[in-house]
Each structure stands twice: as structure tokens, then as C-alpha cells.
Amino acid sequence: MKKVLIITYYWPPSAGGGVMRWLKMSKYLPEHGWQPIIYTPENPDSSVDDESLLHEIHQDSIIIKHPIWEPYDVYRRFSGKKKGTKFKAGYVSEASTGNWKSKLSVFIRGNFLIPDPRKFWIKPSIRFLSKYLKENDIDAIVSTGPPHSMHLIALRLKKRFPDIKWVADFRDPWTNIDFYFKLRLTNWADKKHKKLEKKVLKKADYVVTVTPRWQEELAIIGNRKVDLVYNGFDHIDFENLNPDVDTKFSMSHFGSFNKDRNPEALWIALNEMLIEIPEIKEYLSIQLIGQTDDSIIHSIKKAGLDKFLTNIDFIPHNKGVALLKKSQVLLLPINNAPNALGIIPGKMYEYIALNRPILAIGPTESDSAQIISETNSGICKNFEDVEGIKSTLQLYFNHFKKGTLKTNSKSYEKYSRKNQTTNFVKLLNK
């Protein structure tokens, strides 16, 4: 069996979207004759943990852990946060509009911690992995970012071991990521980020990303071919789910719900529906499962919807999927950010496979909207389209009352983790 070294910051028991791509793909690599060797921090500063994910690690996987030092404890002391406080996803967006300490911390993060706060793991990892590569036969290296420090580790290893194939996997962009413009960058820092990004794009044997729009953007930045391997859903996550749905008109969101995703138009539309269709008060239920930014709770209260809200801060992934299966409508707000056209939330593929109607809120010409349309799995409305969102909810509510609210998703099997792993392996085998 060939061996692939996967350099990733995110790994179970850490949870969230950054974990799932390589947890799932590494599970299917052995079917194609590739043994995954995971290199990951021994003590990562994760935003949320999910011990249940440890059971999904393939038995053939080799896990190598090495200590990491991160500056988050310094930031906690500086900002007055308690030791051990978890940073929610999207903390850069939140801090960029906070008090002077928060703004200063964002400035330091963008201008001195290049490419990201995990930069202090680069040199120790190069030393550790150089020794490992000399003592073990490795056929390929995959670096996955963000954090993009993982790519810089692989970049140095490629220089020392030029015969080992290197695939740089961009789960999110680097200089086009949604919060990049909030980092308060000096011209020097902006040039430094872009120089490192181009160096990775130039030196990697293959570059991969997860959406068509980002594929085009990275190809332009790097002046090279970029391959597309989508995220996806894992069939195993949907086995033996209870087919019964809620008796309430439940609308659910699963995963991190940060400030940039706050769908203000949705809360306004629901508020108006309470007045226009009083009957909906008997049935409405809003379920937010996962870390939710305070600004979203505030918007819900402002719209008079808090009595319908259930907010669950954490639930294991498998139980979260079961709750989604019961839901009448699945909410998919897209980050309201400059790169919104290329954002495809990883949860979208699970939503599609669950075969419950999706209400997406974001650009109607985005990559997400295109897949939702292609798979016949829901409706997408623009960020500010209160009337469009309201008409969609009215349509869904009418079907709910008749007992006919459902979707017939189609053509979505290609988005399974198993099929997407097959696509990735084609690059490893070249």
C-alpha cells in the first residue's frame, strides 16, 4: 500500500468543518491502495471538540502528533478572557469591530502572525517531519489549509525532498478568504501574504480546492491549473435515521453560525409572517445547533422570535444529523462577504442528502445556489430579499400544513465523500 502524509491542523477530537474533509477522505483512501499518515498538533487550540468523531478514524490510519505553541493564551490575557476560553468560529470578524484591544489583536494577527497564528509550528514540524521522511518511505504529501501554515510546512519539505509528490489542498482561499479584508493589513503584510500564497501555488505539484469559483481564482493567482475536489456527504452518517419529521414547522441550522452569516432578512420575513399569518405561531420552531454568535441571538430577539428559538451550543455530529433529518426546513445562510459567490458550506451536502427542503440565503448566482438548483434540493434567495424569502417560507408552510413538504433531491451521488475521494486519488496516482 502506498503512503500519503497528510498535514492538517484540524483532527478529532477537534470538530467543525475543517476536520470533516480529511477525516472522511482518509477513511476511503485505503480502498484505493493509499494508507493515510496524519500529522497533526498534539495540543491544538480548537473552538469545539466532538469525541464521537474519534470513532470514525480508519483503522489503517497512522496518527503522528507533535506539540504546538500558539499565541492564544497571550491574547486571552490581553483581552481579559479566562484561560481556556474557546474562540468561536469567525472570531476575527467579531474582534475587528470590538474594543481597542480586540482591534489591536486583529492588527497583530494580520501583520505579524503571517500567514496565521499557527506559524510557530512551521519550523518544529519541518525538523520533525524531515527526520520522519528520511526514515520512512512516503509517496505523497498533502497539506490542507487553512491554516495556511500547513502549506508552508509542505513547501519546505518539498525543497528538501523534491521527489515526493505534493498536493496543496485549499479548503478555503488564502488572500480571498472572507475575513482577509478585516485583518487591518499594512501594504507590507498584504504583499507578504500574497508572495507566500503564490510561492505555494507555484511549487506544489498539484493544487486542489473545493468550489468552482475558488478554482478559477486560484488558477488566476497562481497562473496554473487548479483541480476541483468537492466536499461532500458520507452515506454512513445517514444510516438508520428515524424517517419521522417534526409536527412543528421547524427550521434548523447545524454548525457554526457566525456574525457574517446572520440572515437579517430571514428574521424580518418571519416577523412579518407572524402578523400576516397568525396561525404560524402555533407551529413555528427555530433550531440553531452549534456555536451561535451573540449578534444572531440579538437579531432574533429584536424580531420577536425568541419564544420560538431553541439554541443548542453543542451536540455530537451524529446526533445533529438526526435532528436535521426530523426538521421541516434546513437553513443555509451564506457568509455575507466579498467571496460569497464561491462559498459552499460543507453542511450543504449533508442537507441535500437528508432530502429535506433547503432555504439558502446568499447570492442566487453563487456556486451554492447552482448545486441546490442542480440537485432540486431547495431554493436560494439573495441576502436582502425579504419578500422572496417570505414567499418561499409561505410556500413551504402551505406544503407543511398539507403534509406535502418534501424534496426529491436528484443527481447528488457524485457529491458523496466516497466519490470525491476517488477524484482526489486520481491526482495521487498521476
Automatic annotation (TrEMBL):
The organism of origin for this protein: Draconibacterium sediminis
Lineage: Bacteria, Pseudomonadati, Bacteroidota, Bacteroidia, Marinilabiliales
Single annotated GO MF: glycosyltransferase activity
Key word Transferase present: yes
InterPro entries for this protein: Glyco_trans_4-like_N
Keywords of the record: Transferase
Domain Glycosyltransferase subfamily 4-like N-terminal: 111-234
Keyword hit for Lyase: no
Transmembrane segments: none
Protein name per its UniProtKB record: Glycosyl transferase family 1
